[in-house]
Amino acid sequence: MTFIQLEHVSKKYRIGGETLRALDDVSLEIDHGEFVAIMGPSGSGKSTLMNILGCLDVADQGIYVLDGKAIHQMKDAQLAEIRNRKIGFVFQSFNLLPRLNAYANVELPLIYRGLSKREREPLVMQALEAVDLVDRRRHLPSELSGGQQQRVAIARTLAGDPAIILADEPTGSLDSKTGTEILDIFKRLNELGRTIVLITHDLAVARQAKRVVYVRDGGI
To answer: Which has the closest alpha carbon to 154: 171, 172, 131?
Structure first.
């Protein structure tokens, strides 16, 4: 079943007096439950593609349908709602709040969503259990290793029960052993039915996915 559908998507940016065509007539389909890696060198257009898939940016031309919803026709407020309800992000830099412990970092998006404390607690604990960090839930990010911080970031995403997880270079700041452990978590989540799109420039990382999409010069 097609979950993500891009048809003839293009995106341009104005830099100085020049026009940069970041994406050029891109068409792509990703099925529900797939684990796809989008790979390409710096400047290839893969980050622009991720931003469009994640509703962080909009295409200049083309069609984007996510889970049956016509994203390309939505206004900013609607896109924000889609990001909040359907998309989970995992970044290279973890993006944890340093003054909050692991539990509170995972809980924060649920507070923004308006859930009560009673509703939040089981979701946070289930997410921390999924990444094997329940025993570290009271630790601050500074008290955790890089791999543990990334696991907190993954738990924060899982707590919101997103339909799709977008992971942008999630192992880029980790050593190879820890990176493998993080990729194993994504594999396990995919086996449980999660749709995962992994952005990377590393072929070894890309090959952990079930399908690799190569991006170069704004095209696939």
So the answer is: 131
